[in-house]
Design a protein that fits this description.
Keywords: Membrane, Transmembrane, Transmembrane helix
Transmembrane segments: 25-44, 72-92, 104-125
Structural class: mainly alpha
Strand content: under 5%
Oligomer: single chain
Radius of gyration: 17 Å
Number of helices: 4
InterPro entries: DUF805
Shape: elongated
Helix content: 40-55%
Protein name: DUF805 domain-containing protein
Pfam families: DUF805
Distance between the termini: 11 Å
Number of strands: 0
Largest sheet: none
Low-confidence stretches: 1-9
Mean pLDDT: 79
Length: 139
């Protein structure tokens, strides 16, 4: 499988991709990788740090607005912080491929449907075949 131009030419391009990336690259190179790292970090925490899981007591109304997991350990927290930048950067470059600005990430703040709008836009709608204000289409 060929990597997009930005990922082939720049050494840190996976961590902070630029330009535009296709839907398949977003799913395979970012969503899948971040999910696998999250599962690995959670199992390491459960094995090595079983007592490190913080328990947060909050009301039912607050659950929709709380973006963090109820439990986790130091490895999960470190991995979440390390993968925050590539996750946001990949979403932005995917939005650029659809000719949307990074302001579309504010959909995350809309309870209930915001994540669904972004999931459909980023993960299910195809690339624009022509150049847009963010550059030429990815190879």
């Amino acid at each position: 499988m060929t990597l997009p131009t930005a990922q082939r030419t720049t050494p840190g391009a996976w961590f902070v991709p630029t330009g535009r990336i296709r839907r398949r690259v977003w799913w395979v190179h970012y969503v899948l990788v971040i999910a696998l790292v999250g599962v690995a970090a959670t199992s390491i925490d459960a094995t090595w740090f079983p007592d490190a899981y913080p328990r947060i007591d909050r009301g039912d109304d607050f659950d929709l607005l709380w973006p963090f997991p109820d439990s986790g350990g130091p490895v999960t927290a470190i991995m979440a912080l390390v993968l925050l930048v590539p996750n946001v950067a990949a979403m932005v470059t995917r939005l650029h491929d659809r000719d949307h600005s990074a302001w579309w990430l504010l959909w995350n703040l809309v309870p209930g449907i915001g994540w669904l709008v972004l999931l459909i836009t980023l993960g299910f709608l195809g690339s624009q075949p022509h150049p847009n204000r963010y550059g030429p289409p990815p190879p």
